[in-house]
Amino acid sequence: xxxxxxxxxxxxxxxxxxxxxxxxxxxxxxxxxxxxxxxxxxxxxxxxxxxxxxxxxxxxxxxxxxxxxxxxxxxxxxxxxxxxxxxxxxxxxxxxxxxxxxxxxxxxxxxxxxxxxxxxxxxxxxxxxxxxxxxxxxxxxxxxxxxxxxxxxxxxxxxxxxxxxxxxxxxxxxxxxxxxxxxxxxxxxxxxxxxxxxxxxxxxxxxxxxxxxxxxxxxxxxxxxxxxxxxxxxxxxxxxxxxxxxxxxxxxxxxxxxxxxxxxxxxxxxxxxxxxxxxxxxxxxxxxxxxxxxxxxxxxxxxxxxxxxxxxxxxxxxxxxxxxxxxxxxxxxxxxxxxxxxxxxxxxxxxxxxxxxxxxxxxxxxxxxxxxxxxxxxxxxxxxxxxxxxxxxxxxxxxxxxxxxxxxxxxxxxxxxxxx
Length: 420
Description:
Blueprint: H1 5-15, H2 23-30, H3 38-45, E1 54-55, H4 66-81, H5 86-107, E2 114-117, H6 120-128, E3 138-142, H7 147-160, E4 163-167, H8 175-182, E5 187-193, H9 205-214, E6 219-222, H10 234-237, E7 241-245, E8 257-261, E9 279-282, E10 288-290, H11 304-320, H12 322-342, E11 347-348, E12 360-364, H13 371-382, E13 384-385, E14 387-388, E15 394-398, H14 405-418
Helix pairs in contact: 1-4, 4-11, 5-11, 6-7, 8-9, 13-14
């Protein structure tokens, strides 16, 4: 059966100029002014959330450029024209494939090492539940973890008697030695955040990976605050697993993510969550074969339109130029650090070393004030969005390249008033 002519025309129009509809946006970007500040002005104009809000919550939810939403919407409309038709299904799958390919390139992985997921949590669980846990087995985690990692580990404790050990990550130069102190013959996995959400602390991922490999212990990194915030090269890091999402620092749609699985540990990582799509072949008599690569961890219906939108955000960053984006973020972080250190009553919690600074800037407000109260006042009175974190006096300011110096100045001026 072939598509009716009107549907064929819709497909042709939707995909004209390239798989993900990027030809026109790319051309418009190329025509934009190339001056030192004009590129930033042009980029900011593409993000609707910045029009009337001081947006410092990218570490929770990144504000997508309009082109990302347009691409996602176009794919959803295409899908809904005839969602069960194989030609349309194929087009959506092609959008996912393009996203997988560009993501792999962006984070230094092979395409075959990328399993597309819905979020960071899904990737963490894929690894955690691949292990045949026994009572008394040990897992080592960092002491600044998100519930996305904590809750499944608590579950392992309750269900299997797994022993959870926590290791401090606040002092960069001591992270590896602290983890190694806790390793025993029962340690099955080390799992921790690449960048801590509540402090911006970064773990020495490559050194930790090497030390653990020498001891035969795999490393799973929670990369929710990684790509887009800090440079990530999966192969250079050398960890076994790296789970990440598209909706934070990479500014993609919600419900997009990926798990990176090193090629040489694929066979040692059994599939636990199973479903249609994970197989390369199967019959009704119990015979099946997994996909030969990381796609074996993918199954069932996924948000393929969102994957197409995520491809658009990754392409946008590539067009902006990652070096320029990272240089801008480094400068904003340095300037914010300097202002906070000069401001009486405020303490800087996040790293001050230039090599460790990133877009997560965490400050501690004076005694008698709460981060959650200041969050409410800034949001309600000033349309400024920051993040309260687990420490009651701490506030997290997420600085992406699109934030402006004037926005940061206004935020800190408001804090001076509210904390006086």
